[in-house]
Amino acid sequence: MIDLTRLYGAYATRLFADLGAEVIRVEPPGGGSDRRLPPATAGALAAGQGGVPFAFLALNKKSVVVDLTTPAGRDILKALVATAAVVVVEPEAEDGLLADILAVPGVRVVTVITPFGLTGPYAGFAASDLVVQALGGIVWLSGEPGKPPLKIAGEQSLFVASLYAAAATAIALWDAETRGAGHVVDVSAQECIAHSLQNAVQVFDLEGRVSTRGGEGTRDATESAFACQDGWVFLAAPLALQASWSGLLAWMKEEGFDGHAALTSAPWQDRPRRTTAAMKAEFKVLIERFLADKTKARCAAEALKRKIVMAPVASIADLGADPQLLFRRFFQTVAMPGIGSEVTIPGAPYRLSEPVWAIDRPAPRLGEHDAEVLGRMNQGHPGRADPAGRASA
Hints:
By secondary structure, the protein is an alpha/beta fold. The chain has 17 helices and eleven strands. The protein folds into two domains: 251 residues, Crotonobetainyl-coa:carnitine coa-transferase, domain 1 (Rossmann fold); 96 residues, formyl-coa transferase, domain 3 (2-Layer Sandwich). The two termini are 14 Å apart.
């Protein structure tokens, strides 16, 4: 696999690398722009390594340096493409790059990832994660009613685009290997976001209305995140979830909470009233007073015992001690030169019946594999992943 990505497809190619594909990053002299994404130390950059995002997204990959601004560099790229079953590219990097790739003879999958796709009125437009999220619609659905829309944290458009691209590429590769027909996969990050908008598309299709922030303003007073002693918990105890509502009231009664009587009064049996701003404000005061002396762990334990739909809101720090993730051995400790001798990172996002997922190597230094990859190419031995899934020379 030839990797000509920087942002939208970087995780897609890493997913293939983790399964044993030989993923070769083609970088310009000085390195790809993604190496410099913050946080990045001057020492790591000087050593030809990269920042924290690069160290994660380039695990298991190889790096070769090719100057694509020169005719000789383009010839090297064409020779690399000729050895590959898959090329993943963000083509705005160099003029004519995609045309050069598509002109190389052979059967392969060429996956093109851009903010808005290769056609249409926005084709070729520059964008950022915020712009793609906004024009994809997820920003409209995020946040509180009556307040500004919110961008989801964590560069989500880049990861969503990568997930869609990886799935489409895998399907196209299977077809190419089965029928001997090549494919061009045109991935629009905007369309990937628009396709993943919770149930907004179905709501419009079935009910003829556009979803908005906060569940169209009809969310029950109990459905929100509330403060407790050491953080936040999410609660959902509307009348439609009678067991959750009854369990919450029973817990309050057992604790002798003085707000219990107010919540058993007639207004709290009126579903429409429970969605009003006044009732939401009243419930927030009561529930946060009730939870003020209770930890997230205790809330979770009581919720399980009483069938209350309530769960802790985990911080990043909490995830490392999450009992489910620890039991599944989700986190992996790997070497990341330039960042630390060993770093704990998220592991495989799935489990397969065969142990083909692995982290074999840290993110590559710039040009680390020039001699291996380019020398092998010159000798006419491109190399492919072996049937067991790990890359062979």
